[in-house]
Amino acid sequence: MSSDTQPSATPPTPGPAQAQAPVTTTQPTADIGQIVEGTVVKITNYGAFIELPDNRSGLVHISEIADTFVRDVRDYLKEQTTVKVKILGLNDKSKLDLSIRQAMSPEERQAKHKARGTFEEKLRAFMKQSEERLLDLKRNTEAKRGGGRRR
Asked: Cα–Cα 20 to 30 A to 129, which of 25, 50, 113, 122?
């Protein structure tokens, strides 16, 4: 066997033109940055899965649902509701990253911020909740002691 008929064991090193070739995906990325409407399909602890009109789906992470702290996604979203989302891009697994927060216009953000109430209203609501919790705690403690009034 001659040595010039055997294939080389080392692959050819990529040149500058090959190293900068763009990575192609099966889904078009031209719609990144667009605002579209989608339907909430599933809600999880870390976000919500949204199905877009072109039958693609993506995740809205819990941090991209509202401008405020979101403790439970179900407080903001319900399944089978239509929401406006902004397409942020594709993640490592070729899934869409979406945002409800970034899809809102500045006017909508201000309106939601004003709708939350003033500081005095928030303080009043907090005080009411606090008093109710203290009363419940006091009732439970007295019930465990046997009614509280013994002579």
From this structure: 113
What's the chain's length in residues?
151
Residue range(s) defining the domain that contains residue 74: 30-104
What's the rounded Cα separation, in Å, for the pair 147 and 151?
11
CB–CB of 83/40 below 8 Å? yes
User: Alpha-carbon torsion 93, 95, 99, 100, what sign?
Assistant: negative
Does the structure show a pLDDT above 50 at 18? no
Q: What global pTM score does this model have? A: 0.55
pLDDT tens, position by position, 43-84: 999 999 999 988 888 999 999 998 888 889 998 899 999 999
> How far apart are alpha carbons 50 and 105 in whole angstroms?
20
Helix (H, G, I), strand (E, B) or coil at 47: strand
Q: Can you read off the two tokens belonging to residue 142?
A: 């007295």
| Rounded-to-integer distance, Cα 129 and Cα 142, Å | 20
C-alpha span between 85 and 35 (Å, rounded) = 6
Total structural domains within the chain: 2
